[in-house]
Hints:
This is ThiJ/PfpI domain-containing protein. It holds the Pfam family DJ-1_PfpI. By secondary structure, the chain is of the alpha/beta class. The protein has helices spanning 16-31, 81-88, 90-100, 111-117, 133-137, 162-175, 177-186; strands at residues 4-9, 36-42, 49-50, 56-57, 61-62, 68-71, 104-108, 125-126, 142-143, 148-150, 154-157. It has one domain (4-186): Class I glutamine amidotransferase (GATase) domain (Rossmann fold, 3-Layer(aba) Sandwich). It is built from seven helices and eleven strands. Strands 5-2-1-6-7-11-10 form a seven-stranded mixed beta sheet, sandwiched between helices. The chain has a two-stranded antiparallel ribbon with strand order 3-4. The longest helix is centred in the first third of the chain and has 16 residues, at 16-31.
Amino acid sequence: MPDTTAEIVLFEGFDELDAIGPYEVFENAAQAGASLETSLVTLEETDLITASHDLRVEPQGTLGEPDILIVPGGGWTTTGGARAAVEDGVLPDAVADCYTAGATIASVCTGAMILAEAGLLEGRPAATHPVAVDDLEVHAGRVVDERVVDDGDVLSAGGVTSGIDLALWLVEREFGADIATEVAELMVHERRGEVFG
C-alpha cells in the first residue's frame, strides 16, 4: 500500500491539462519508485465528467481523505467550470474539509479561486492564471507572478502548463530530486522558474 495518496478533484468544465498533467507526473513518479497512489475523483459518484474542451473523463472514484489534493481550474471567464464551482460552494467546502483533515492542498490555474473561496489563501502568497489575478487579489495575502508557489500545506500554480511544474515540485519535495528529475526527463519536460516560497 502506498504511503501517500493523491487525489485530483474533477468538476464539470475543469481544464483538461490542469488535471491530466499532474496525474501523468504522479503516475510516472510511482513507476519511478515513489510510494504514491493517484486517483481522478469527483465529489459525487458519476460515470463521466466533461472538461472545458469537451474531453470526457471517467472518474476513478469519489473524494476521500487524500494526503495531497490537487484542484484544477478552467472556465473562470465563462459561466461554468471553476466559476460555477465557486458560486455553488460545495467544492470549496469539500476542499476546506480536506485541509482541516490534514491534506496538502494544491491548485492549478484558476483552481486558486476555489482555494480562495475555501478560505485557504488569506494571508498567503498565491499564483493563478492571468485572467483571475484581479479576482484573486481580493482573497490572497499576495498574488505573485510565479509558476509555482509553495506555502507549506497550500500550494498554487499559475496558468495551465504550470501544473506539470507544480506536480514535479511536489514529487521532488515528497520523494526526492532524483525521482522528479527522472520523471521530467521521461516526459521531456524542461522545468521552468524557481519555486516561490
